[in-house]
Amino acid sequence: MISRVAEHCFWLARYLERAENTARVLEVNHTLLLDFHVPVEQQWRPLLIISGVHDYEGEPAAETVQEFMTWDRDNPFSIASSLSWARENARIIREVISGEMWERMNFYHLWMQGGDSRAVYDSHRGEFYAQVRRINQLLHGIADATMSHGEAWEFFKLGTYLERASQTARIMDVKYHTLLPKVEDVGSPVDNAHWIAILMSCSGYEPFHKKPRQLPHDPASAVAEFLIFDEQFPRSIRRCLWECESATASAAGNPVVRGPSEPERLVTELIAFLDARKMPDVIREGLHETLTHVVDSVHQIGEAVHATFFAADIGTPAVQVPPEVPSPVASGMSQSQSQS
User: How confident is the model at residue 303 (pLDDT cuts 50, 70, 90)?
Assistant: First the structure.
């Protein structure tokens, strides 16, 4: 399998996952603000930071941020841009993905380009974001059922779970600590509501409540433990890294006569970092510090994947703009806000 094809599979998956994550956090944030009072400066700017947008011009008001993060084609992190780049990657590797997957990908591309999607957005915002989530979920289901599970599939899976691991860590850190920076609010009903919103932003509300656990348990620690360490939830950081470990090993061929590739080594190191800790250790060391380490490590893994598997095919640049979501540390937020 040539590196160009592998790279398009990798970024097709990442763009689809990125569009779904953006839709989910926009919808959850919109619903949260209907039920709770949040200071104006803490309402929509965290969503920009989660997406890696640190140079937003003007006041981050509700409608302007949603418009920017949904439709702005000049914003490389918007839903429209992500789905457009996903479709472009799919178009280039039509011989690798199934006909059913391409047909559905193209259908949703045309839907986003036409007036029907804008009509749904204007009349029923929640339904629009739900439809964007379903786009990614449906395409992943079609890919799983119709693509051969060979090298192309492993790179598609690697892109999916690497993006998920990063997004889960970023949502937990940035969204929570920027919306609720006051220590005296910890443990309050509003605090619990924010943790529920974080669960919903990661599609973890139902799985979290269906998982047996001992009571009493601090809600904040329980949610954080679930999203970081749970072994079964497909969006927990640990589960995503396990999937990345399997995908990188399969993509590299993993012959016994050689050592692990650089992406394999970095994924294994990050898994070992989490395995060496339990939730009390994370709280003692700092939730922010742990999540920042995860985000930075995922960024390094992405760079290693590019250097190991894709960089050799210099003559055919892949459609992969933007490269990685910038770290929230670059946003200039204060340490008191505990940004990731």
Answer: very high
User: Is there a domain that residue 336 lies in?
Assistant: no
pLDDT exceeds cutoff 70 at 326:
no
Is 338 a domain residue? no
Give how many domains the chain has, as a whole number. 1
Q: Which residues contact 280 (CB under 8 A, 6 or more apart)?
A: none
Question: Which residue, 4, 330, 339, 306, is CA-closest to 152?
Answer: 4
pLDDT given at position 327? 53
Residue 262 amino acid letter: E
Domain membership of residue 339 (yes or no) is no
Domain that holds residue 26: 3-324
pLDDT digits (tens, 9 = 90+) for 60-111: 888 999 999 999 998 989 999 999 999 999 999 999 999 999 999 999 999 9
